[in-house]
Amino acid sequence: MYLKILVELYVPEIEEQYELYIPVNKTVGYCIKQIKKMLKEHYEELSDDLNVNLYNKRTGQMYSNNILIRNTNIRNGSQLALLTI
Question: Which of 7, 9, 45, 79 is 20 to 30 A from 60 via CA?
Answer without folding.
Answer: 45
